[in-house]
Each structure stands twice: as C-alpha cells, then as structure tokens.
Amino acid sequence: LALVDGNAWRVELVGLIALFYPLTFRYANTIGPDIGVAAFIALGVYFLWQPRLTVRPAAPNLLFLLLSGFFLGLASLWRSHAIVAGVSILLVYAILVGFQSFWRQKSLWVTFLLVAGVQAAVNLLSGHGLLENAQYFNIYKTFFGNDWLTVPEQARQGLFRLLLSNPRQFFEEYFFQVWKVALYAWPSVALSFVSREKPLKQFAVFSGLVILLYSIPVAFGSSPRAPIAITPLAFVAFGFLSSEMLARLSTKRPFFLA
C-alpha cells in the first residue's frame, strides 16, 4: 500500500519498521499465528484501499472486494481477536463510504462472513457454543492475576459478575490496556492533519478510527499480542506521514500555509 504512488523510499521505511519493530520482530520469530494475523489484515486493507489511493481514486473492483473480505475473514481464523479488527475495518469503511454504498458491495462483507463463519460452524459441529472461546480466563487474569498452580473458584464465576466484583480495579486496569493499544493511532491522527490529499486524509481517518475502535474490546484480554493485528495500519500511516512531512519540508513552507 505504501507503493501506490511509486515512492520507493516510503516502502523501504515501512518495510524496515515492520521487520525491526520489537513487537513484530518478536512474533515473526516465534512459532505462532500472530504474524499471520498481521499479514492477512495488511492484505485485506491493501485490496480495500489501493484503488482509492492511486492517481485516479476509484472504488475497489469485484476481485479486490472478494480478496479483501477473504483475507480479513482468514485473519479471524488465526486469532479470535482478529475478528474484532475485521469488524472494525468493515464498520469504519462503511461509515466513510456510506452504508448504502457498503451494502451494495456485498461481495466484501458476505465473503468476510462466510470465511470468518467457518469457526462458528466448527464450534457447533464439535459440540461447543456458537461463539465459544477461551477469552474469559484472559479477562480474569487481567484484573486479578493468577496463581498458575491453583485456579481460584472466582475464576469460574459469570463474566458480568467478574467485571463488577471490583469496579475500581477494573476501570484502572482497563483504561490502561486501552491506552496501550490506542497509542498506535498517533501516526494516523498526525497524518489526518498533515496530508493535503483527500483520499490520504480519508485513509488516515479510517486507520485511526479502526485502531481506536479495536482497542476498546481487546483491552479486556490484556494480551501483549493484541496490537499486532493493527500494526500494518500504524506502520503504513507512519510511512505516509513521513513522506508528507518530507514533502512539506522540501517546499520550505510552514504547515499552516501549505
């Protein structure tokens, strides 16, 4: 996505950040599905936004919509929290392009639902709940910690009762976790002010809102891996921000006069 206008310098910058940023570097070299989630989210966003960021902005064609929905749905099969990222991406995209236009792009969201729905089908066929997952324990240890040798009885109570058993501790810990993920939106926020092109401003708003929306539910689990799903958005926004600021500096004009 960083190569939409042939800016090789921006591509190199985003590539180096993706390779050596501690979070992505760690999980790219760790056996697990997390880096796959980041890759699928990146591909889903690419096919959704590449046509809009070209010299002649246009809506994505049928093939791009199908591929975007497929990769966003595929990400949710790798990690359960990736479905939050997928839904956030589709919701913010629908707000920006208009719900009527989004509804007409059925190939996008129907493909997403079909691919992401594979997990729900497997759950039912294996005798589990439709949306059953193991997030309850993650939420418990976020707020109360855990003795790995003895699982306390409190960890088996209902989720609603768990969250309300200590409201002060809940809010203190919860907002800290939201802040850790929401911080990844700063390049998008800065880009929305710096960019001079409408499509790029729209992408900045899109990526920033997706990250902020994503941070609200995933903060419950306090997983250190949670931000990796939205790192592609943050990295690309930082790449565009850097190239925009460099262009401003090369014109030697103050930001407020550009």
Shape annotation: globular
What is the averaged pLDDT score? 82
User: What is the rounded Rg?
Assistant: 20 Å
Hey, roughly how much beta strand do the residues contain?
under 5%
Q: What is the CA–CA distance across the termini? A: 25 Å
Helix content: 55-70%
Low-confidence stretches: none
Major β-sheet profile: none
Number of helices in the DSSP assignment: 13
User: What class do helices, strands and sheet pairing give?
Assistant: mainly alpha
Multimeric state of these chains? single chain
String of helices and strands: HHHHHHHHHHHHH
Beta strands, count = 0
Write a structural description:
By secondary structure, the protein is mostly helical. The chain has 13 helices and no strands. The chain has helices at residues 8-20, 22-28, 34-49, 62-78, 82-97, 99-104, 106-125, 135-144, 159-164, 167-182, 186-194, 198-218, 231-251. The radius of gyration is 20 Å and the shape is globular. 36% of the residues are buried.
Question: Quick recap of the structure?
Answer:
With 258 residues, the chain is mostly helical. 69% of the residues lie in helices and 0% in strands.
Question: Helices and strands in order, then pairings?
Answer:
Blueprint: H1 8-20, H2 22-28, H3 34-49, H4 62-78, H5 82-97, H6 99-104, H7 106-125, H8 135-144, H9 159-164, H10 167-182, H11 186-194, H12 198-218, H13 231-251
Helix pairs in contact: 1-13, 3-4, 4-5, 4-7, 5-12, 10-12, 11-12, 11-13, 12-13
